[in-house]
Amino acid sequence: MKRLFVIGCSYTSWREGKCYGSSYPALIAQQYPDWQVYDASEPGSSNDSAFFRLQHLERTYGKPDKIIIQWTHLGRTNLVFSYK
User: What φ, ψ does residue 38 adopt, rounded to 5°?
Assistant: First the structure.
């Protein structure tokens, strides 16, 4: 089975990492049942957060066959309060 990683902000309609409803990751998953779609979008996230989430997905699930990244605006930043 092929793997697709989808990463973005709230416009990607993320909810608990699951593809469902009428978000575009959910519609892709419905249209392409032979693909495993991983929606790692997070509301309010920044572009550097998207990079870190992509790294996490690759470590956890391996290299994807395709990636869709919905970049956000440059004004968003990622603040890390703890590395634990």
Answer: -110, 115
Rg (CA), the chain: 13
Half-sphere exposure of 54 (CA within 13 A, CB side): 19
How many C-beta atoms lie closer than 10 Å to residue 68's C-beta? 17
pTM, two decimal places: 0.80
C-alpha–C-alpha distance, residues 77 and 38, integer Å:
23
> Which of 65, 1, 66 is CA-nearest to residue 33?
1
Q: Which residues contact 48 (CB under 8 A, 6 or more apart)?
A: 77, 78
Give the model confidence (pLDDT) of 59-82 as tens digits. 999 999 999 998 888 888 777 787
Residue-level length of the chain: 84
69: which residues sit within 8 A by CB, 6+ positions away? 7, 8, 50, 54
